């Protein structure tokens, strides 16, 4: 068994979490190479919108938002959505949370408007997390938001519609590990203090569980048309390569345009998903870093440790400069509100993108094979974008580039050319943006990094 700590990027592109995320430290994954299939023209066509999109919003929302990280007056360690196992809560105490979940303030159009104002091009929302609770109108189980809550509504159906109106790709997260299904058993079965992760497939039940997944995925695909399905929780003991392949083939049989991440495991899937970590210089192939905006995925009332807008903008740039996407998480509360500090930060990112989005959307990674002392770079044919996070005090920017620079200007002031001499750019004393200012270079053909 390969533990996450020894799972290096070399043979596995599920990177271990290096931050204090209390989940990553204890997971273990099967020892299989996580190689993503090489690009073909078919795959290129399928991935096209996602490669352009660059920025997505992750939404972890479920009945775990009711306790919000606290059980019987005590703080439970770990992210909010893990409370059932970290709090050793038996099902007969956890499941009734559904009856308390009444998100009367949920407004799909408001969420989609926030997402659009943040500049995200796709959202990925939990359709079912590890607790097994379904956030959509499924016929496969009554443990779902329409049947089991006093609210009786389907937020995914509403969000799906709202996303289309706001020009956002609607995508769903789906957990393979399931603490509710009879087809998986807890790690430590106990009537009073069960520990669920990793669960075990009940011997002989793989086919039944795969069929259950297919029922739900079929409902999602035909009813909500997600552009992408984001699997997770595949570290269940007994989850097999054949199961992973069967699910992938089923999805593509229904809709070959659906993108699937790599967390079905066993090398099945379309792109890599480093978590809470942005690989320096990027990664080979398609990849997306998912990250919390504070320290939890699901809502946790005590977690006020929000990353600054400046950190988040820089993270987005770092991902894109490395050729990847940034999937930034929000954790709405039990009333259906995205916490105000999270909205504030999303809008700050959106304001930056409004001016500088041309350096992000539709670009590819840095042409330079070195770290730039002043920041980051992205490119489009004929153009290099420099995202300058360390504005030079002397106003001089040395760019390690062998091309003729035909024109150089600030993205915030496109009508005024900057003075250049060879590959040296002369900047104004003051940066147009306190976080990252974009310098655009128009060049003669393909970049020639020095
Ligand atoms: C998983 C979930 O357990 C978590 O609740 C959240 O949904 C997150 C997006 O994904 O957590 C993981 C998954 C993979 C690793 C670490 C935490 N990993 O590969 O290091």
General description of the model:
With 450 residues, the chain is of the alpha/beta class. It has helices at 41-53, 83-86, 91-94, 97-100, 108-118, 145-148, 155-165, 206-224, 241-254, 309-321, 340-356, and strands at residues 2-3, 28-29, 55-59, 70-71, 74-75, 122-128, 169-175, 184-185, 200-201, 228-232, 259-260, 288-291, 325-330, 375-380, 383-388, 396-398, 405-410, 413-417, 419-421, 424-426, 437-443. Strands 11-10-7-6-3-13-12 form a seven-stranded parallel beta sheet. A five-stranded antiparallel beta sheet has the order 14-15-21-17-18. Helix 5 (108-118) packs across helix 7. It is elongated and about 75 Å long. Residues 1-34 have low confidence and may be disordered. Bound molecules: 4-nitrophenyl 6-deoxy-alpha-L-galactopyranoside.
Distance between the termini: 43 Å
| Global structural class | alpha/beta
Which blocks of ≥5 consecutive residues have pLDDT under 50?
1-34
Number of strands: 21
Overall shape: elongated
Q: What ligands are attached or bound here?
A: 4-nitrophenyl 6-deoxy-alpha-L-galactopyranoside
Strand order within the widest sheet? 11-10-7-6-3-13-12
Largest sheet at a glance?
7 strands, parallel
Put simply, the count of helices is 11
Fold blueprint:
Layout lengths: L1 E2 L24 E2 L11 H13 L1 E5 L10 E2 L2 E2 L7 H4 L4 H4 L2 H4 L7 H11 L3 E7 L16 H4 L6 H11 L3 E7 L8 E2 L14 E2 L4 H19 L3 E5 L8 H14 L4 E2 L27 E4 L17 H13 L3 E6 L9 H17 L18 E6 L2 E6 L7 E3 L6 E6 L2 E5 L1 E3 L2 E3 L10 E7 L7
Helix pairs in contact: 5-7, 5-11, 8-9, 10-11
Bound molecules: 4-nitrophenyl 6-deoxy-alpha-L-galactopyranoside.
